[in-house]
Write a structure and sequence with these properties.
83% of the residues lie in helices and 0% in strands. By secondary structure, it is mainly alpha-helical. The chain has one domain. Helix 2 packs antiparallel against helix 5.
């Protein structure tokens, strides 16, 4: 819990403040995990699509991280612009690193399969480090993605099965959330 949250008024015991905010942030987290699982499958299927996919995910993750950083800055009574600027620089570094990974793959320095896993590993590390500064949920996301890299490395032949299981978990969680909202 960050310092601004520690001084928040008492109410529902949710890290985001209100119950609705907490659920929305967890749904975003699950969505990002799902997008990462899709990226693992896409990277395994096609080098070009994998490269484009990971480059496209960089701004998606970056924008969500910047929104979280801006929210934390507002809660702490700080200026939003520097927080968002740090996130832009942080996630731009990931975009450059992904380009370099695929340059190494194109030159034959690393295999096609390894390029996708290294891109996911970079995403995991970038998310984790963003979580240290902006919102703890990105630390959780980084840890989940790192576990996905380890699982994929061990179970490379079962990557499609892992992606399907991840999809089912996310869909199940979304359905449970929608059911709760109706109740």
């Amino acid at each position: 819990m960050s310092a601004p949250e520690a001084g928040a008024p008492s109410g529902p015991a949710t890290p985001g403040g209100s119950g609705r905010s907490f659920r929305a942030e967890e749904i975003v987290l699950l969505g990002l995990v799902l997008l990462s699982g899709i990226g693992m499958a896409v990277s395994g299927a096609s080098r070009d699509l994998g490269y484009r996919y990971w480059l496209a995910m960089t701004p998606v993750f970056g924008v969500l991280s910047a929104v979280a950083a801006a929210s934390e800055a507002r809660r702490g009574g700080l200026s939003v612009a520097p927080a968002v600027g740090r996130e832009v620089l942080h996630w731009s570094g990931l975009a450059v690193a992904v380009c370099l990974v695929y340059l190494l793959e194109q030159r034959g320095e690393i295999t096609h399969d390894a390029a996708g896993l290294v891109a996911l590993l970079l995403l995991a590390l970038t998310a984790y480090l963003a979580g240290i500064r902006a919102n703890w949920r990105f630390c959780v996301l980084g840890a989940i993605l790192a576990c996905a890299v380890a699982a994929a490395a061990v179970l490379q032949g079962f990557l499609w099965v892992l992606a399907l299981v991840a999809l089912l978990v996310v869909v199940g969680a979304a359905l449970l959330w929608m059911r709760e909202r109706r109740a």
